């Protein structure tokens, strides 16, 4: 009932309902209470009709949930209603590279020598590794990639080269702190 009435209407409704329950309500107040209830019922009916129209249009035009809501909104709703676990797991994907047209993912296992050698050589020489990185648009993965390369090689990536990747030193340091020991 509260969401169908304005704050002032709901407050007056509560006052009149209390008077009614204590049998101290006047006929004029009883009429006012009936008007408030009728107003709330009309709003409820209007809302129900609007929802029905929306459902009809969604079916008629075959609108999918991902057209109406972002993936994050859908996930939040699923968490709210207990369809998936409430805790959001931060999913960190491993660094990905391409070299000579072949994709590589740098998981817990070391990179194969056919990419590791040219990648590490370029990194240690202070050259750009932008051409190796497959996920340039993902700043977090780029930062994780540079952090891991710095740890593995002992070299520090130049600030200008970080800017080329649209990554800051702070992001690399944060990614380095998240790397497993």
From TrEMBL:
Domain of life: Bacteria
Native organism: Paraburkholderia phytofirmans OLGA172
Protein known as: H-NS histone family protein
